[in-house]
Amino acid sequence: MKKRLTITIEIEQPDEFESFDDLEGFVREAGQQIQQRLCRELAEEVARAAESPHCPKCHSYNTVRKGQKNRVLKTSFGDVRITRPRHRCKECGHHFFG
Predict the structure, then answer these.
(1) What angle do CA 32, 80, 64 make, to 5 degrees?
(2) Is there a contact between 56 and 70 (Cβ–Cβ < 8 Å)?
(3) 61: which DSSP letter?
(4) What pTM was estimated for this model as a whole?
């Protein structure tokens, strides 16, 4: 099922452009910011919606969320900073990112 996603981004536009090349460069940069924002929003949504992950050490599903950590993803449209949930296995005590 498809769903709608709305993202809002504020971009400062120059009062005027000296050339069409400047305008094109501005649009390219704005598009890159939108791509980065959309990637971050979707990646964080997927992480939040994920079922309880299994422990990579003992493979138990008896895990709990234990904070979060920021991470930088290298993408074709630039670096994207996301927040990843951190988990702890109740069986073996291993901490990992889901």
Answers:
(1) 145
(2) no
(3) S
(4) 0.67
The tens digit of pLDDT for each residue in 3-22 reads 888 888 888 999 999 999 99
In a domain, 68, yes or no: yes
Chain segment 36-89, per-residue pLDDT in tens: 999 998 888 887 776 668 899 999 999 998 888 898 999 998 999 988 888 999
Q: What is the count of structural domains for the chain?
A: 1
| 39, part of any domain | yes
CB 63 within 8 A of CB 53: yes
| Rounded-to-integer distance, Cα 54 and Cα 26, Å | 44
Q: Provide the residue range defining the domain that includes 84.
A: 20-97
